[in-house]
Amino acid sequence: MSPRDRLLAGLVALIWGVNFLAIHAAVEHFPPLFAGALRFLVIAIPTLLLVPRPPVRLRWLLGYGLGFGTFQFAFLFVGMDLGMPAGLASLVLQACAPFTVLLGALLLREPVTARQLAGVGLAVAGMVAIGWQRAEHAALPPVVLTVLAALSWAVGNLCSRQALSPAQAPRPGDRANPLHLTLWMSVVPPVPLFTLSLLFEGPAAQWASLATLDTATGWWGLAGLGYVVLIGTIAGSGIWTTLLRRNPAGVVAPFALLVPVVGMSLAFVLLGERPTVVELAAAMAVVTGVLVGTWSPAQASPGGSRRFRRVRRATSTATATPATAASANQDNRDNQASTTTPR
Length: 343
Description:
The protein contains 16 helices and no strands. It is mainly α. Helix 2 runs antiparallel to helix 9 (190-200) and helix 4 runs antiparallel to helix 13.
C-alpha cells in the first residue's frame, strides 16, 4: 500500500470514528428511530430518481436493507439514546466481524480456521466483560442493543454477498455494481423505520423534533445527521471502496480497527466519557480478537492458498463500513465491495 493510500485509510478511520459522535448529536435531538429513518430517506430519494436498480434478487436486496440498514441502525440509535456511550458503541459494533464469521459458517458453510475461532472467542470474551461491567451500573440494555446491531450488520453482510454472487444473479451474466447495491439498500429502511417510530415514539415526538430545528440542539442534531449521510456514508464509503479496488483486502481491512480507537478517544476528549479499567482491557481483547479472526498474512498475497482465499471472501469485509472488502481478482472485489458498516 502506498503512503498516500495509508493516509487515506487513516482518514476513513477518523471519519467513521467521528461518526459515532455525530450519531450521539443526532439522537440528542431527534427520536432515535425517526433519526434512522431520516438518515436513509435523504439517500433513498436521489437514489430512486438517479441510480438504476442493480440486477440482484429482491430477497437479497431486502435482506441487506433490513439487516444492515433497518435493524442495525434501529438497535444502535436506540441503544445510544438509552445511554450507550459513543466511544463504547464504536467498539462493541466491531462484534460484527466474529458474527459474520460464525453466520457464514452456519448458513453459507464457509470454512472456518482455528485462528478465526480463537479470534471469535477472544472477541466474545471482551464483549462479556463489557456487559458484566455495564450490568454493575444498571446499563446492560444499551450494550445488548448494540450487540444486536452488530448481529444485524453481520446478517446484512451475508445478504450483500449473496446479492453480488454470480451464482445468485437473476440472469446469467448479470453483474451488479456494488455502489449501486449499497445505495439501493438505503431505499429499504425508511418505511419500516418510520413505522417503528410511529408505533414506539409517536407522531408528536417526530413533529416536535422538526419544529424545534432552530434551537441549539436542533442545529447540532441536523449537523449530526448531515455528517452521517454526507461524510460518514458517501465520502467515507467512496474512499474505502477505492482503496479496496487498489489494494488487497487483507492490507486495507485492518485499518477499520482504528475506528473504535478514534471513537473512544474523541468521546473521552469531547464528551467526557471515561471507560473503566475493565472496559479498556475488554476493548483491547475485542480489537485483538477481531484482528486475529479476520486477517492473516496469507490474505495480503494473491498467491495465498485457495482455502485462505475462500475464508477471506467470508471474513475480510466484516470489520469495514458501507462498502467493505475485495480480493485480488476482480470477481472477489465486486462481491466484497458492498459489504458495509453503518456508519
